[in-house]
Amino acid sequence: MAPSRRPEGPPALGGGALIFVTVGSMLPFDRLVRSFDAWAAAHPEEEAHIQIGTGRYEPVHVPWSRMLDGRSFEEKVASASLIVSHAGTGTVFAAFEHAKPIVIVPRYAALREHTTDHQLHTAAWLRGKPGIVVCEKDEDLAAKIAEGRGLRPSGDGFSKTAPRAFTDRLRRAIADAVRRDPPKPSSNSTLTRG
Amino acid sequence: MIRVALIGLGKMGISHLAIVRSHPSVELVAVCDTAGYLLDVLSKYTGLKTYTDYKTLLASEALDAVVISTPSRYHGEIVRAALERGLHVFCEKPFCLDLDEARSLVDLARAQGVVNQVGYHYRFVGAFQEAHRLLQAGAIGSVHHVRAEAYGPVVLQPKGATWRANKREGGGCLYDYASHAIDLMNYLVGPPRAVSGSVLNRIYSADVDDEVYATFDYGQGMRGQLAANWSDESFRKMSMKITVWGTDGRITADRQEIQVFYRGSNGAALGLNSGWNVRYTTDLTSEVSYYLRGEEYSAQMDHFFSSIENRSIENVSPFSSALLTDTVIHQIQRDALGERAEPAAARPARGGLVKRVFRFS
């Protein structure tokens, strides 16, 4: 499915802005897909897309794909006004990078949605940070989406790279180390790291 | 408390650092790496004792065990030094780049009577463990074919920044990706007698292979096929899928689930229905105390440390099975170069499934 191409910049709040929903790339998460599909049925004017992974339930009221490749996923996040996702750090960081508000629905080990309850811990750690809403009950999803829409950007200036001052310091440290002890390609008595 | 040191703090080392430090039975005594800036940061924020030379570390600290996650070409000498001191050893995969070295370390570990384990963590994923259990029970009759596939988005453009892009250092898809698939094939059906039709192809890399294909010969007409490619971005993460065909059915397992198609007559005893059976990894996994990147990373460490506590030398992923995996890697390399591959090492007692299912072997 071709990614939608929206103009850059923040979309107007309210209708018409894409909500991108994802269950991540590791395990199915039918509970989230069903809940959101029900929400979409009640909000036919809204534009949304779900990446449903290997789940059995296929949405009826919203366009979906099984698995987007990395670039298409990135484009979806960039063109969305709101992300709704499982509490996977990959998705959360993608939302942070694009400063998109995100509604996080943690998976429960008891419902066999994951192997452990670590997503609850991730959600607890994220709760209250800018641009984050945590949705722990299916019946709260509509309210949490409405809340998420009113949020300021997430990520608090999150960047994929460390601050320039830090990388400069690192560069100097490596250069100094190499000057002091030039790498010996045939040496096998000391550890050298690539 | 088990006194442990960590040697090598790259991608896997940092991951092991978090898991080891959170383990209730373990005291992390010291860490070792050659990157001074990394050690500075670590000691500043964690107070950990740091070393830049593993020999000094081993000579200075009272230890029970080491975790080794250096670039692969250093595994041999560091494992040896640790074994000579009588330490239990967890070593990252692949085990050794040199087969003779791997063989002698298997013997040394056995002579020292220490716990020895290699980081083939797929053996700790619920669906693959269930596949192993069923195959050990002979659930699908005589096994006649096996196929393993591993794909993922590691190298997607020409680059060569780290040791993983260097052939002499144990870089490349064969060592990094295919090794896991080979190890699982060995875990489930035992090692092949010979390897043919091997392809080690570059797509983007200058020095190493990006895709690996090979045919395995198990004797008695049984064959296996391996396909691995780490330059496929249609997969968002590493995927691993293995299928085993037998006279009584078929087993397919991946990170997510195990599917068994069963047509035998002993279903009740095996817990299998006639036709399709699906069980999810989430149902087959016991809770680990700490989760990072997947429960299998913690599960393999739990196994290593509980083996030390229980003085149990039997291991799910011992040096001896890693040697068999190294041997197949070596066979593929030689076969791809057009040399005749040497016969595989003797089959381990526990992995002798192929031998067992062929009544006339």
Highlighted features:
heterodimer; A: 194 residues; alpha/beta; 6 helices; 6 strands; disordered N terminus; disordered C terminus; B: 361 residues; 8-stranded mixed sheet; 6-stranded parallel sheet; 12 helices; 14 strands
Detailed description of the structure:
The complex is a heterodimer of chains A (194) and B (361). By secondary structure, chain A is of the alpha/beta class. Chain A has helices at residues 30-42, 70-79, 89-97, 118-126, 141-149, 164-180; strands at 18-22, 48-51, 64-65, 80-86, 102-105, 132-134. In chain A, strands 3-2-1-4-5-6 form a six-stranded parallel β-sheet, with helices on both faces. In chain A, β1 (18-22), α1 (30-42) and β2 (48-51) form a beta-alpha-beta unit. Chain B contains twelve helices and 14 strands. In chain B, the strands form two sheets. An eight-stranded mixed β-sheet of chain B has the order 8-9-10-7-11-12-13-14. The model of chain B is unreliable at 346-361 (pLDDT under 50). The chains are: A alpha/beta (194), B alpha/beta (361). The A-B interface holds A 25-28, 54, 67, 69-71, 73, 109, 112-116, 118, 170, 173-174, 177, 188-194 and B 7-8, 10, 32-37, 53-54, 70-71, 73-74, 77, 126, 153, 161-166, 169, 233-234, 236-237, 255-256, 280-283, 285, 287-288, 291, 295.
In brief, what are we looking at here?
The complex is a heterodimer of chains A (194) and B (361). Chain A contains six helices and six strands; from the N terminus they run βαββαβαβαβαα.
Describe the protein's topology:
The complex is a heterodimer of chains A (194) and B (361).
Chain A: E1 18-22, H1 30-42, E2 48-51, E3 64-65, H2 70-79, E4 80-86, H3 89-97, E5 102-105, H4 118-126, E6 132-134, H5 141-149, H6 164-180
Parallel strand pairs in A: 1-2, 1-4, 2-3, 4-5, 5-6
Chain B: E1 2-7, H1 11-21, E2 26-32, H2 36-46, E3 49-51, H3 54-60, E4 65-68, H4 75-84, E5 88-91, H5 99-112, E6 116-118, H6 126-136, E7 143-151, H7 173-189, E8 194-201, E9 211-219, E10 222-229, E11 239-246, E12 249-254, E13 257-262, H8 267-270, E14 275-280, H9 281-284, H10 295-309, H11 319-336, H12 353-357
Parallel strand pairs in B: 1-2, 1-4, 2-3, 4-5, 5-6, 7-10
Antiparallel strand pairs in B: 7-11, 8-9, 9-10, 11-12, 12-13, 13-14
